[in-house]
Amino acid sequence: MIHLFKSLYFSKVVFHFVVGIVVLFVFAFVFPWLLGIAQLCFMILILLLLADGIILFMAKKGIFCRRDVPERLSNGDENPISIFIENHYSFSILLEIIDEIPFQFQKRDLLFHTSLKSAEQQIIEYQLRPTKRGEYSFGSVNVYVKSPIRLLQRRFQFSQDKMVAVYPSFLQMRAYELMAISNRLTELGIKKIRRIGQSQEFEQIRQYVQGDDVRSINWKATARRNDLMVNAYQEEKSQNVYCLIDKGRVMQMPFDGLSLLDYAINATLILSNIAINKQDKAGVITFSDRIGQVLTADKKAGQMTKILDLLYKQKTRYMETDYEALYIHAKTHIRQRSLLLLYTNFETVASMRRQLPYFRKLAKDHLLMVVFFENTALKTLLDKPAETTEEIYHKTIAEKYFYEKQQIVRELAQYGIQALLTAPQNLTVNTVNKYLELKSRGMI
Q1: 405: which strand partners?
Q2: 64: how many CB neighbours lie within 10 A of its CB?
Q3: d(Cα 437, Cα 339) in Å, to the nearest integer?
Q4: CA-based diameter of the chain, in Å?
């Protein structure tokens, strides 16, 4: 009995009726003839409530509901969630559904209204975008049912407490992989890189397609086939590609809900997958005030699973970064010349110069590419016209920091260090383009 009362709720209509009946009783003190009408309305309300309660509770399992959640969620992406509902009542019902999603989303208004005929089924779909890796706990699905009388609501609670892990953006990784298979990477912003020189090994003679270098046309084969034929060259394979992820405090800055660290982690996952598909070896090193987790570069089956698990587990206290420890580790453990993609961030030239000696030492043994981030807020401020003295002052300061970023790129180039300055939302595309460019130029 207590359980029944706990699952019973009055609708707003009941309170409106109660207010109206109370008003009738009040006016009955002045107009006695209203007393009978007020009593009659009260009795009708009681009878309707009893009838509504019997209708709602006559079926022990009036509805069935199930929430379908992926086994894991993709960080920074829209993940599909669905709720399946089936009406077991013999009449049409009105429904209010409240899903208890994880607290990390900070949503308290996830309410759905719908209706179902007898024996009808329905699927409600919505999407969630997590912005932090880790475990997310889903609570119950609360379904409030109204009969055609619409005075009472019966709550059905489907306890589906489920823990779901949020991994780095594997949805983006799959999208890039599918586009690569269908030769449609340009739709994602990946450029077609022209091969420079002929340092690659000869692979085959094939038919000319638009975009091929005309200098690679094989005129003898063209004359024999009466069709344009070109020499195809095989890119050098099995090169080491290491993603070095700075987990220091400079990577704490948020953009569109995600930290710069999570952008770097997502880009690392996608780039590693592309490198392995290109028959290169992919590895990961994380560091902050000390060396974190290390995964040796490899291209064996299961390497991507290891990279995904490593990136998922990354935690940081956002301490000051120790680049000396990174250099010592690379000098000791990375013996073969490799491409090192260092994800970090600098706001001033002075902060970069403090680490420049370590960058130069790394660049002696490896091909080093430093990836850091544009301050998109500064770009927005620069694009906005200044009208007041205060706005002019702010814009002047913004220009100083904006051009310092450009100066960092130029100074790194002076020492033969590749540099990539990118907006966070373009990090993956720009990094992949740079990797393909370096590979086409035979630098790795």
Answers
A1: none
A2: 14
A3: 12
A4: 114
Q: Using an 8 Å Cβ cutoff, are 80 and 68 in contact?
A: no
Instruction: State pLDDT tens for residues 71-86.
Output: 999 999 999 999 999 9
Helix %, strand %, coil % of the chain (to 5): 40, 30, 30
Contacts of 211 (CB under 8 A, 6+ apart): 192
pTM passes above 0.85: no
Q: How far apart are CA 217 and CA 281, in angstroms?
A: 31
Question: Which regions of 181-259 does DSSP assign to beta strands (E)?
Answer: 201-207, 229-234, 240-246, 254-255, 258-259
pLDDT digits (tens, 9 = 90+) for 93-135: 999 999 999 999 988 878 999 999 999 999 999 999 999 999 9
Phi, psi of 381 (to 5 degrees): -65, -35
Of 346, 368, 373, the C-alpha closest to 416 is: 368
- Which pair of tokens denotes residue 14? 């009941």
Q: Which CATH class is domain 175-189+236-440?
A: alpha beta
What CATH homologous superfamily does 63-167 map to? Immunoglobulins (2.60.40.10)
- 354, amino acid identity: R
Q: State the sign of the Cα–Cα–Cα–Cα dihedral 16, 17, 22, 24.
A: positive
Instruction: Extract the tokens encoding 312.
Output: 């998922």
User: 3-state class of 198 per DSSP?
Assistant: coil
Residue 403's CB is within 10 A of a number of other CB atoms, namely 11
Helix (H, G, I), strand (E, B) or coil at 70: coil
